[in-house]
Known about the structure:
By secondary structure, this protein is of the alpha+beta class. The chain has 14 helices and 17 strands. Flavin-adenine dinucleotide binds next to strand 2, helix 3 and strand 9.
Amino acid sequence: MDASYTAPPGNHDPDVVVLAENVEDVIESVLYARENGLPLVARGTGTGMSAGAVPLEGGLVLSTVKMKRVIDLNVNEKWIQCEPGLTTADVKNAAAKHSLFYPPDPSSYKISSIGGNIAENAGGLRCVKYGTTKDYVLGLKYIDADGNLQSTGSLSNQVDGMDLTPLLVGSEGLFGVIVETRLALIPAPRATYTVLAHFHDIYRALEAIYTFLPELVPSVCELIDGEVIKAISQHDPYPFPEGCKAALLVETDGEEEAAKLELNRVMEVLEDHDALEIHTAQNPEERERLWNLRRLISPALSRIADGKMNEDVVVPIGKMATLIERVEEIAKRYKVLIPIYGHAGDGNLHLNVMYKKANEENRIIAHEAIFDCFKTVIELGGTISGEHGIGAAKNQYMNLQFSEDELNILRQIKHAFDPDNLFNPGKMLPPDSS
Ligand SMILES: Cc1cc2nc3c(=O)[nH]c(=O)nc-3n(C[C@H](O)[C@H](O)[C@H](O)COP(=O)(O)OP(=O)(O)OC[C@H]3O[C@@H](n4cnc5c(N)ncnc54)[C@H](O)[C@@H]3O)c2cc1C
């Protein structure tokens, strides 16, 4: 399993597990899987939320978590070259030693692997200002379906022409096994300011976002709804004010003076929008305190009900209020709880449909509710996954978003990389209906 709410029914035990320590182990595994007709599923640390690393058809699970070497870090050119098994935090820490910064930060950054981040094009809290993993991958080395080592981008000798790197980022283990990468770094911001503001109404919080976003680029802009606040409050004594139904965690960063000016403008807007209270972190400990509330969301929600479909949908920023209204209607119609939080600065909201795993009727209703949420997202011009990937959890919904022609193009690309469907079969692409 991974961290996804559910994998399709059946036994998902692998036949063989390999903990690769180097490129040779990966090549040998690919050749072994080929010769023995076994599907091969690459795996990082298994924090994926779309069942991408689950071996649906058994086969060989190839973990790259032991491949943890930092091969080089070039301060002048600002990049790090490393193996896929390092955690996101390892990469951030290696960069920080040289006052450099690796911005992508999925909330799972302490445990997720860089290989998994690349395969899922992981996002996170700082995407609003700094973009996602794809914006930092300069080049890759991967083992193809014939067991050959291939290089792309800045890790290939090719300096011009077609670059396969963008195709491999977000390919969810369908095209090959990533064994090395070169990632861009940037200078670390000199100053960071953090505020947590509370509102009696989530729509007022959204109006505040709509007011400051056109004027400045916060480095973090996270929205938390009332149900999420209730869940957090059961595990943390943080004094959310009476009547608090929404919260915004906002950060500005950069050069001291500019970041401070931006913070002041954000504070002004929050006050103008009737924020009940605004807590400003005065030092790194207070900042950590506010961030810990944000990090508590996922575990706190998991304690409300043992089933939690955490869907990372995205809509155009201006449509977030409509999405929330429509999700509230869906929740009422199906009588399910759907707490909402997420990266509001880039329209990426996490809809969490809560249900009891053991209750089959409950599970089916939860699926129906999420299906309606996905249809709404598409109607609003959005996408069903902003960062968690499709895997086996959402491939049955791909045709809500893509036409059969578009899906066929994706199938042809998969075929070009992997004609025998060796890598991660049954993921991302729905079965061909023709
Ligand atoms: C509490 C929590 C919070 C999270 N927050 C975020 C968030 O804010 N933003 C976000 O984007 N995600 C988030 N995630 C999801 C998850 O952490 C990311 O998708 C992460 O990138 C997965 O990395 P992993 O190493 O766990 O990959 P795995 O789950 O092991 O694998 C994921 C996919 O990558 C493929 N893969 C793994 N390694 C390789 C390789 N070497 N070569 C080729 N393919 C490979 C697998 O085949 C699979 O398809 C969160 C997860 C949790 C549990």
